[in-house]
Amino acid sequence: MPAEILPAEELEDLLARELTSETVRQAGTAAALLGEGDVVDLVERLPPARAALLFRVLPKDRALAVFESLDAGHQADLISALREADVIDFFEQMDPDDRVSLLDELPAVVADRLLSGLEAGERTLTGVVLGYPRGSIGRRMSPELVSVPRAATVEQALANVRAHVLDAETIYTIPVVDHGRLLVGVVGLRRLLASDPQTPIEDVMRPVESAVVTEDAERAARRFLDRKLLGMPIVDHEDRLVGIVTVDDALVIVEEADSEDAARQGGTEALRRPYLSTAVTRLVRTRIVWLLVLAVSAILTVQVLEIFEATLDQVVVLALFIPLLTGTGGNTGNQAATTVTRALALGDVTSRDIGRVLFREVRVGALLGLVLGSLGFLIAGVVYDLQIGIVIGLTLLAVCTMAAVVGGAMPIIAQTLRADPAVFSNPFISTFCDATGLVIYFLIARAVLGL
């Protein structure tokens, strides 16, 4: 197939070959025919050295657009492979909040060198965002915004928007400020264009939904998206306007948080970049800690079996149901934890609601246990005998109730302790329910069978 019509997959193969002047020329021709999204996907799949080569054959404006579309992790990888002059040029063109996300991924020496290469004004704006705590919405806001005074008219406001249209992060949501940049309202561009030029801004502005700079970024972003806003002003603790967050920034924050929660609920850490471009050693590091923790925790289960070894020797059939009971308990707890973790993230549940959550999960777990226990009683009673059926039925009822309560409580306890609720979820709940479920199982067996 001619180089002019190479699709992204064949361009990837081309960049994987031994590099010659002809190969580089063909890569440049093929890359010029790809859409920006295809180039971004290709850069994310390539090793940093080859991705840097692709950058060098792209037109400067297009390379900048692709660089800004990458996540901070990939940008950091590229910086190590690109020439310093290329890096500084890209860095200068980025928005302050995007610069900060990139700086967080870089070694301190590299970050300091990039900061020192900025113009004084851009360095000041970047320093403002860097000054806020990691994980706060202030760290993700843009200080480049356009605002209008409360005393202005619609005509004056539009003139101010036109004067800053190329500098502001967004012009669709315009904060209204009073003396000392005190935030008093917000007005949309559509409302300005539809209003009489001499109308006072105070008559067209609406109440504002804002966030304090130190508020948790995920919580602020979810509230922002829940309100279906285009932009949300960020204020300091005295309600003075300091920045703005746009809908695309909020979507990125929530996507990162959801990816992290999903990974931790599966017993690993989020990769923060596509799977194929993640180093094998990085994959191992994201998994090994959790496996070690779970391996140590699983010793509890072994110890429980050792304690009740005599009971198993007397009624060997009890061992056949251990996988069923531990699996059911773990799954029930995981279901409850996932539901409550999601409710916490969306703001449907807070730490103060723990009593209501536990009361609901007791009822849910008991009903689930009643259904599963009845089924277990019938099957085990027919296949083995009535007493074994009673043991299995009662155990399923107790284990489901216990697991649902534990699964519902742990994410709330984690949030109260300022830990990530996802960390306390599936892996730890499964291990806890396994050990506790076995204790319940053997105690019921001893009582019913008279062992």
Automatic annotation (TrEMBL):
The keyword Transmembrane helix applies. Residues 141-203, 204-260 form the CBS domain. PROSITE patterns: CBS. Pfam families: CBS, MgtE, MgtE_N. InterPro entries: CBS_dom (IPR000644), CBS_dom_sf (IPR046342), Mg_transptr_MgtE_intracell_dom (IPR006668), MgtE_N_sf (IPR038076), MgtE_transporter (IPR006669), SLC41_membr_dom (IPR006667), SLC41_membr_dom_sf (IPR036739). The keyword Thylakoid does not apply. It is a multi-pass membrane protein. It is found in: Cell membrane; Membrane. Acts as a magnesium transporter. Homodimer. NCBIfam families: mgtE. This is Magnesium transporter MgtE. It comes from Ornithinimicrobium faecis.
